[in-house]
Amino acid sequence: MDRYEEYKKLLKTMMSEYRYRHSLGVADEARKLAERYGADVEKATVAGLLHDIMKDQPPKVQLQTIEDSGIILTPVEQASQKLWHAIAGAGYVRMKLGIRDPEIFDAILYHTTGRDGMSRLEKVLYVADYTSCDRQYEGVEHMRELAKISLEDAMREGLRFTIQELSGLERTIHPNTIFAYNELVCDKLRQQRDSAV
Ligand code: DGI
Ligand code: FE
Ligand code: FE
């Protein structure tokens, strides 16, 4: 059995059918984006497959996995249960699956919040999570178009969407989400200024 088949078999035991289909969809999308934008295709596929591995696990198990991985949560992270699966997922993949690659670790760790200074692989996974074939939200076609043109344009749109949604619900917004957004907006403004002179 190849590596991907082994991971798929494990995923099936850890998540719903719906989440399993999502994981396959994100792996496929991440592979395509990696090919298009020059990220490591194998790492992108593995990160895509495994990024939500802890998502359907009970919150207690997620917290325990985080603790076992030696990761300390900030107060904002403690208050935002939706973020735990990404942190626990990165820990699980390193600890239980023995995947030591720090790039895969970071891609999974930051797949929900993003951060500033993201690698190509991190951006690929972040965007793939928004544009995979199983996604159906309003505006997904526009996101898919953006993803074909520019990873950064798609990232900015995804972050804008998330920040808008979370603030509308009066939820916490992780500082990394704001850092990622500000960096991309500053980059765009700089490019506009540079091309004007
Ligand atoms: O796991 P997925 O559903 O595939 O997608 P995801 O990992 O991006 O998780 C999306 C959820 O995470 C969504 O309910 C909004 C929430 N989220 C995303 N960014 C932040 C966040 N929640 C908080 N509190 N802060 C964030 O910055
Ligand atoms: Fe996720
Ligand atoms: Fe996901």
UniProtKB/TrEMBL annotation:
EC number(s) from the headed UniProt entry: 3.6.1.41
Keywords associated with the record: Hydrolase, Iron, Metal-binding, Nucleotide-binding
Annotated NCBIfam families: bis(5'-nucleosyl)-tetraphosphatase (symmetrical) YqeK (TIGR00488), HDIG (TIGR00277)
InterPro entries, per the entry: Diverse_Catalytic_Enzymes, HD/PDEase_dom, HD_domain, HDIG_dom, YqeK
Catalysis: reaction(s): P(1),P(4)-bis(5'-adenosyl) tetraphosphate + H2O = 2 ADP + 2 H(+)
Positions of the HD domain: 19-134
Alphabetical list of CDD domains matching this protein: HDc
Gene Ontology MF terms in the entry: bis(5'-nucleosyl)-tetraphosphatase (symmetrical) activity; metal ion binding; nucleotide binding
Pfam families for this protein: HD (PF01966)
Protein name: bis(5'-nucleosyl)-tetraphosphatase (symmetrical)
